[in-house]
Amino acid sequence: MAKFIQMTKFKGIKSTWRKVENVVRADYIGASHKICEVNTEMSYPATKEQGEANMKLILAAPKMLEALALIAGKLDSKEMNVKSQEFKLWQIANGAIKCALD
Q1: Which residues have CB under 8 Å from 59's CB, separation 6+?
Q2: How far apart, in Å, do the first and last CA atoms of the chain sit?
Q3: 3-state SS, residue 43
Q4: What phi, psi does 50 have (nearest 5°)?
Q5: Measured between alpha carbons, how far is 22 from 81 in angstroms, rounded to an integer?
Q6: CA dist., res. 23 & res. 37, Å (int)
Q7: What separation in angstroms does the CA of 19 have from each of 8, 38, 54?
Q8: What's the CA gap between 38 and 35, in Å, rounded?
Q9: Where along the chain do its domains lie?
Q10: What average pLDDT does this structure show over 34-45?
């Protein structure tokens, strides 16, 4: 069974991310830092609504990563049945965390 991946490996800015127009920013050490710019004015067949949905997903990423780490940590057990829903959830959570941290 894979070992739980710790949040301390996250090298990004550990503060609240916020939307400023079409830019995701984070306040860190007395300054506002640009995380990324999101194209919210997408061309056809995409819509502005889809661009805004992408922005929301990016803004939620730090909290989702933290939630996945908590889930994976709570489910990390050598006693877990590999056929159980909990084990599948643990595998998915750890896989997503690994993608975010590697």
Answers
A1: 17, 18, 19, 24
A2: 19
A3: coil
A4: -70, -40
A5: 45
A6: 4
A7: 25, 10, 12
A8: 10
A9: 7-101
A10: 84
| Reported pTM | 0.72
Under DSSP, the state recorded for 11 is -
Tokens encoding 91: 């595998």
For strand 31-37 and strand 17-20, is the pairing parallel, antiparallel, or unpaired? unpaired
CB atoms within 10 A of CB 56: 10
DSSP conformation class of 4 = P
**Whole-number pLDDT of residue 2:** 43
Alpha-carbon dihedral 91, 57, 28, 22, rounded to 10 degrees: 160
pLDDT tens digits, 46-57: 888 888 898 999
Position 57 scores a pLDDT of 92
Fill in the amino acid letter for 73. G
What is the band of 24 on the pLDDT scale with cuts at 50, 70, 90? very high
Place of tokens 């730090």: 62
